[in-house]
Amino acid sequence: MSTLFALLKEVASPTIGLGCMNFSHGYGSPVPEPEALRALDEAFEMGYRHFDTATLYGATANEQLLGKALESKRGQVVLASKCGMAIDPQLGKKVIDGRPETIRQQCEASLQRLRTDHLDLYYLHRLDRQVPIEESAGALGRLAEEGKIRGVGLSEISAATLRRARAEYPIAAVQSEYSLWTRNPEIALLQACREADTALVAFSPLGRGFLTGTLRDPARLEESDMRHHMPRFSADNYPRNLRLLEGLVDIADELEVSPGQAALAWLMAQGNDIIPIPGTRSVEHMRENLKAETLSLDAATVSRLNAMMTPDQVVGGRYSDAQQADIDTEDFDQAYFPQSPRNDWR
Predict the structure, then answer these.
(1) How many domains would you assign to the chain?
(2) Which domain covers residue 120, as residue numbers?
(3) Is there a contact between 224 and 25 (Cβ–Cβ < 8 Å)?
(4) Angle at Cα 180 formed by Cα 176 and Cα 183, nearest 5°?
(5) Which InterPro entries match (predicted)?
(6) The pTM is what?
(7) Of 112, 128, 243, 273, which sees the most CB atoms within 10 A?
(8) Which CATH number do you get for residue 134?
(9) Mean pLDDT calculated for residue range 77-81
(10) Which entry of 57, 169, 178, 238 is annotated as an active-site residue?
(11) For position 77, what pLDDT does the model report?
């Protein structure tokens, strides 16, 4: 059993966790604090026990929010945060910095904001290409040895980087985007995680809202919504991607569940070492997502879903060129399939 699953077992947690970024970062205006605190309290009451945040989100505001929301519940939750990518207050922009001294400083600051003496899981948010991963992983390992964190994590990294990092210190979890319409971990990362008993924590398991079937026109999103800068959501690409939802909606109707619940069930059917952390501001959607925990798909349904939204069918990259430059994750291209047509990827 991986370190992360052991932690979840300690608090009798469901597999599905809660990504908390949406309250403060990335998807339009931040949720007012009183409303956000009420939503997080309801999330706990309905059963969520794994809460995920980061130094970056809301320029530390999200960690401060979770500190207030979870302080009285700290011993009953698995609390995860991230370092190595933050908003520099002097520059006013995002900076990636994986130096050991930065990791330590950010960890100490996160502990204060989160009102706790330790984090259950602490990720390197992005690979710093100027710092060997062994140095960053070693710094995280020293924090674990000191009791400041219980598990070391990495985010948006490749299988090769994971193998180098775990030679320095055991990696409890890797966070990567994984969903029906984002299959990148299946190239190599999922296998590398399984080699080392490392959990794969799937962020954006509902395709940043796409797989819920409720986002029909991205142009109506707030101007500050990050999806405006993602090629899959562009005015040219999104209508073509919407057609891919028809099969998922049909299966969801057959199962008498929502498309989002069917998508989460598909993801969990890919392996019991995969932990989805869907993010939402809506208490109703939190409840809907958590119900997918009990939804089991038969092999025929999983096979039907496997054939949908394959990389050759999805139109547009998941990140802009600038965003893509910041990540280390493998991508579907001819480097991985030099002799095969794109639809033979599986």
Answers:
(1) 1
(2) 3-344
(3) no
(4) 45
(5) AKR (IPR020471), Aldo-Keto_reductase (IPR050791), NAD(P)_OxRdtase_dom_sf (IPR036812), NADP_OxRdtase_dom (IPR023210)
(6) 0.94
(7) 128
(8) 3.20.20.100
(9) 98
(10) 57
(11) 97
